[in-house]
Amino acid sequence: MEWIQKELVGRRPLAPPSMMMSDEVREVMDTFGCAAQLGRDALGAYVISMASNASDVLAVELLQVREW
């Protein structure tokens, strides 16, 4: 949780656009990139399936606020 919180307040991108990823990971990252461009209020409430810890929610927040 400490690392995720540090990344949330940081200014650098989480991963560089040129980073090698599988097609599946790239699709997820692109989806979160679209969500980031829409802004925080665009999606409203949503369910994070399989979340069992606060860090699961923070990880989704981290991916959503970053533009890829």
Describe this structure in words.
With 68 residues, this protein is an all-alpha fold. The chain is 53% helix and 0% strand. Helix 1 runs parallel beside helix 3. The longest helix has 16 residues, at 23-38. 0% of the residues are buried.
Head-to-tail CA distance between termini: 22 Å
In this structure, how is the largest beta sheet organized?
Answer: none
Computed over alpha carbons, the radius of gyration is 12 Å
Rounded mean pLDDT score: 84
* Helix count from the secondary structure assignment: 3
- What is the ordering of alpha helices and beta strands? HHH
- Report the principal-axis shape: globular
Helix percentage range: 40-55%
How many structural domains does the protein architecture include? 1
SS strand fraction: under 5%
Unreliable stretches: none
Category by helix and strand content: mainly alpha
Number of strands: 0
